[in-house]
């Protein structure tokens, strides 16, 4: 079969090192009964590893040019190959429902896929994802740091980190121009009205250079007056910025804004 070039426009970087597959297997805590969702199987190296070890794999791929490389996997009884955009497909309708997301995520959609899956895929209990190093750092960044943002808050409200592994550029073909990392985290729960909390969080970080009250107003989440009242109700000066709040304080803020 002819070689295929990764498409940078889709954020593709194919895994080309069997050793990293062992690290993924360990951090993903794979079990024979697992149902796994994989987004971006690429040439299928990780898909094969998963299919040999778990009950079922849902592999979601956008790039139809990879079909010849995945045909053998699609013929396996415990692999469902799904063609389409993972951000547009109804992944919650997949059967059997996935309990783990294990993937070398395409760089250009890694953050939204993780953010959407927190509330949109309630069956997921564990994530083990390969992402750019700076994205991995954002997931569990501390408040008042440069990396801390909306995705940090959302991930930390839903999960706790269980593993982290820096990854050499040499494990990919083509080699990316950025560092990567594997990060694993397990669900610990989800706040009530998570979609409303997410709207507040994303609105709060939508204008990082503004005070939180102004950011919420500019984002259309609440009037400035209402935002000031809510911030005072949870014990914060209205001039505070979003990055100063702990994840749990955004839940309290959403409650105060009702």
What would you note in describing this structure?
- By secondary structure, this protein is an alpha/beta fold.
- It has two domains: 8-187, 3-Layer(aba) Sandwich (Rossmann fold), CATH 3.40.50.150; 194-257, Helicase, Ruva Protein, domain 3, CATH 1.10.8.100.
- Helix content is 35%, strand content 19%.
- The protein has ten helices and nine strands.
- The strands form two sheets. The protein has a seven-stranded mixed beta sheet. It has a two-stranded antiparallel ribbon with strand order 1-8.
- Helix 9 (224-233) crosses helix 10.
- The longest helix is centred in the middle third of the chain and has 11 residues, at 110-120.
- The chain is elongated and about 60 Å long.
- It catalyses: adenosine(1518)/adenosine(1519) in 16S rRNA + 4 S-adenosyl-L-methionine = N(6)-dimethyladenosine(1518)/N(6)-dimethyladenosine(1519) in 16S rRNA + 4 S-adenosyl-L-homocysteine + 4 H(+).
- Its EC number is 2.1.1.182.
């Amino acid at each position: 079969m002819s070689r295929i070039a990764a498409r940078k426009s889709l954020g593709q970087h194919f895994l080309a090192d069997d050793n990293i597959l062992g690290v993924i297997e360990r951090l993903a805590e794979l079990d024979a009964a697992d149902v796994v969702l994989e987004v971006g199987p690429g040439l299928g190296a990780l898909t094969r590893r998963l299919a040999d070890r778990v009950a079922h794999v849902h592999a979601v791929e956008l790039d139809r040019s990879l079909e010849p490389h995945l045909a053998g996997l699609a013929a396996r009884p415990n692999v469902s190959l799904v063609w389409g955009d993972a951000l547009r497909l109804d992944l919650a309708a997949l059967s059997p429902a996935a309990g783990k997301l294990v993937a070398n995520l395409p760089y250009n959609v890694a953050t939204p896929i993780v953010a959407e899956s927190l509330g949109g895929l309630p069956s997921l209990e564990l994530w083990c994802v390969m992402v750019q190093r700076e994205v991995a750092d954002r997931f569990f960044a501390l408040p008042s740091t440069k990396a801390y943002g909306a995705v940090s808050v959302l991930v930390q409200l839903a999960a706790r980190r269980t593993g982290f592994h820096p990854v050499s550029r040499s494990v990919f073909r083509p080699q990316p121009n950025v560092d990567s990392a594997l990060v694993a985290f397990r669900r610990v729960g989800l706040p009530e009205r998570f979609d409303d909390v997410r709207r507040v969080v994303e609105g709060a970080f939508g204008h990082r250079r503004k005070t939180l009250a102004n950011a919420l107003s500019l984002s259309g989440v609440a009037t400035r007056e209402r935002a000031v009242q809510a911030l005072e109700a949870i014990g914060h000066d209205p001039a505070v910025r979003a990055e100063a709040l702990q994840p749990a304080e955004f839940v309290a803020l959403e409650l105060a804004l009702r």
